[in-house]
Amino acid sequence: MNKKNSIAWPIAICADSDIADKIEAILHINLFLPNNNENSYIEIGVLVSRKEYNNISRNFNINITLPFKIYKTDFIDIKDRLCDGKTINMIFNEETHLDKNKSSFRLKEYDLGNIELCNTTINNDTSITMSVKEQQKNSYFRFRVTNIKDKISDTMLSDTMANPFIKAIKITGISINLDRRFTKQIDNKIKFKEINTFIILDSTTELLEKNKSIKSFRVLEDDLWREYIGYDTDLNMTVYQFKESNLSGGCIESYQLFLKSLHHKSSKFEKYKFLLFVVLVAIASNFIYGLIK
User: Fold this and answer.
1) By the 8 A CB rule, do 133 and 59 touch?
2) Sequence-distant (≥ 6) Cβ neighbours of residue 54 within 8 angstroms
3) pTM for the full predicted model
């Protein structure tokens, strides 16, 4: 068994010190973890609203710090993909459910209101800046970081020489405003009224352990979702939603999600290697049989 390090990502999300308590925010996290690590990515969206009762009207910044360097070639501002209206409604809408007062299924829709789609800027380090314009009430930012394959490691459970179907364990950990390295920003950290995390896995992947309850899950069959994700595959993907909100009206100051998943992998290279192994074993067996005959 080949054991490597697993994902453990502390993320800090902060605002200007005089702003953090005067805004409301909703956080979206998408983590795309197909069996092929080459296509993995993390996507973060932040909806920022000025509270009705404060008089802060100036522009301000929100900064997100990731635990690794981000290259411009791996950074995608998702703003332009949301302009069609359908995609942003798809992101904010809740899951399909059965209305007790009706005999048919319907979609519970999120009241989008007047949301301004805003640009996200990557800095020359591990941070990303989101600028909220003056007088702007509802601002939405969303970006994707691709090419995170080097940030993902597997614990291999099978020998690919003797078995072309690989089994691998992934341990995934994400924390928001929790790591001790961010103590200097503790007064500036944004408190969220809601956090939605979506983990997207191959349907053959088994979710073994988790530290939070699954709110919903479904097979990703919608063409719009497939187009948005941008992963060209004939395989079905399963989306697991983890939702956290403070029912008492308070805010979420920190957040942590832990997952353990079992991935079943297979590739042409591994199959050819296995066939070669079988052929070599057969040749060796025939040779030994000929010697002792």
Assistant:
1) yes
2) 22
3) 0.79
Q: Give the position of tokens 């995934």.
A: 172
Out of 3.40.50, 2.60.40, 3.30.1890, 1.10.3470, the CATH code matching 9-265 is 2.60.40
260-283 residues labelled b (16+ CB within 10 A) or e (exposed): bbbbebeeeebeeebeebeeeeee
The encoded tokens of residue 111 equal 């009241």
Note the pLDDT tens digit of each residue in 84-133.
Answer: 777 777 777 655 444 555 444 444 555 555 788 888 999 877 789 988 88
Other Cβ atoms closer than 10 A to 192? 24
Pairs from 129-134 (Cβ < 8 Å, separation ≥ 24): 129/61, 129/62, 129/63, 129/64, 130/46, 130/48, 130/61, 130/62, 130/63, 130/64, 131/59, 131/60, 131/61, 131/62, 132/48, 132/59, 132/60, 132/61, 132/62, 133/59, 134/57, 134/58, 134/59
Residues in the chain: 293
